[in-house]
Amino acid sequence: MKALIVDDERHVREAIRMLVDWNTYGIGTILEAQDAKTAIDLIEQERPQIIFTDMMMPGIMGSELLAWIQQHAPRTKTIVISGHDDFDFVRKTVMYGGVDYILKPIDPEQLNEAVSKAVASRKQDDEGSEQEQRKSIEINQLKPVYWNKMLTHLLEDPSYYSSIDETLQTEFGMPGGSLPCRIAVLATDTINANIRSKFARSEDLLYFSLLNICNEFVRTHNQGVAFRHDHGDIVVILWKQTERAAALLDTMNNGIQQAFGSRLEFGVGSERLVPAGFKQSYHEAILVLRQRNMRAARPRISCYDPSENPRQPTVHLSEYEDRLLLAIRSGREKVIKDAVQLWINQVEAMSYINMEQLELWRHELGVIKARWLKELFGDLSISLTLPSESAFFIVPLDPDGCLSIKQWGVELEEGLLRLSQLWTEHKRQDEHIIFDIVKYVDSHYADDLTLQNIAERFYLSREYISRKFKQQFQENLSDYIERIRMDKAKLLLMNPQYRIVQIAELVGYKDEKYFSKVFKKQEGVSPNEYRKKLK
């Protein structure tokens, strides 16, 4: 914090320097001026928070300096130190926001009390200013979110318009009354890959930049507003010169090209009347984008035409599910490539593929993938690092924004190959872990072996171990444990030194009677009868 002492008498300035406990108040810089003109220059350069000033000085009077400070540095706190007990001076001190009026000779206690009050008042102002700044920043950050929500609601429910029409007029300059409107939607699904790579770490920044460009064109003359729909689309609402919507969007696209090096696609709904027209025109714009033929070069601005509704026979990915799964199970790259190529050949034969078709295939593959994972990996409880959805279904575009089916086939092959490799590794580990369990049982048969204990030791589910053990050895794990224990018991029964109760404990049974019961069930005779037979 800085303080400025203004007085034409040097000894007064020195007295103030000596009497104030600067460190206590956090004041590290003390400046001096012998007249008001010098003080004004210092105030403009140094911006002190506290100013001590005399009222009677050569040239500009102290009261005039107070008036200047109030106008040019209103947050600065002033303390008047004067040799004149003049009511008019006191009145002007209060008028211009002075903290205190102290008479010479200076009372140290009174001076420090005034400084304390001035510093506290300035800190309170600073905190209030910081809070206001933070509040302003928060409001500015929340404002776009608020408008996105509000305008999204407007498109979905036209009756909402009556409650915000005045706000739209005030905020965006939208004319009142029943007027034509038109909705355009920017196609984010065909944004150039180079643009996406530049914003790979922050997709929100990409959308923020695009919105700024769009609003720069439509809000300059209050022609409309651009916002981000809750579904993620960038939507442009137009309410002026709607008949020239295509031309305006084309100009906007030029701005996007200058900023990003590539033009984007817009779907435009037909001209409709506010407010019902908002929803109608928006859904028309969405329909235009969904019906674009991704196999052909397209205009960057596509307007809704009710006569255009192309319907083409579709090919279902599910028809190739079994062949693709067999290829994955084979673990062979060529078999997988051949299976994918059969599917790609069918797609290549289609001259018309729109976004609806692509979304259908994406959905089909999602369902198929879920079935594959269940069939290949079962209900294995440990985590599996599986290929992401994009590894199975990436729809690459060429520089013209058309679907690159060849590259799509390559991406699909890579995704299925990774899944096949993971399944092969998983299968190999399956076999190893079951044999590890067998080894563990063979060496720990005398312990308290339960399926739960084994599952916890090997970090597997009980159901998984039971199923895999049965598949591998055609025998339940519990039966295998009993058989191993009985085989060991028969060997021990050959030694007459061991009593039956000892043998039971040595093979894992604490209860001799239960051991005898299990032995008889397995061998058809009791342990004693078996021993007599051996003799």
Short characterization:
With 535 residues, the chain is of the alpha/beta class. The chain has 21 helices and eleven strands.
What this model shows, in words?
Strand 1 (2-6), helix 1 and strand 2 (29-33) form a beta-alpha-beta unit. It contains 21 helices and eleven strands. The radius of gyration is 42 Å and the shape is flat. The longest helix is centred in the N-terminal third of the chain and has 49 residues, at 108-156. The chain is of the alpha/beta class. The model is unreliable at 381-386 (pLDDT under 50). It folds into four domains: 2-128, 3-Layer(aba) Sandwich (Rossmann fold); 157-303, Reverse transcriptase/Diguanylate cyclase domain (Alpha-Beta Plaits, 2-Layer Sandwich), CATH 3.30.70.270; 317-424; 444-534, Arc Repressor Mutant, subunit A (Orthogonal Bundle), CATH 1.10.10.60. The protein has helices spanning 10-19, 36-46, 62-72, 87-95, 108-156, 161-172, 193-198, 203-218, 245-260, 276-290, 321-330, 333-348, 355-377, 389-392, 405-443, 451-458, 462-473, 477-493, 500-506, 512-523, 527-534, and strands at 2-6, 29-33, 50-53, 77-82, 98-103, 180-186, 224-228, 234-238, 266-268, 272-273, 301-303. The strands form two sheets. Strands 6, 7, 8, 9, 10 and 11 form a six-stranded mixed sheet that branches. Helix 8 (203-218) packs across helix 9, helix 11 (321-330) runs antiparallel to helix 12 and helix 12 runs antiparallel to helix 15 (405-443). The protein is 58% helix and 10% strand. The N and C termini lie far apart (106 Å).
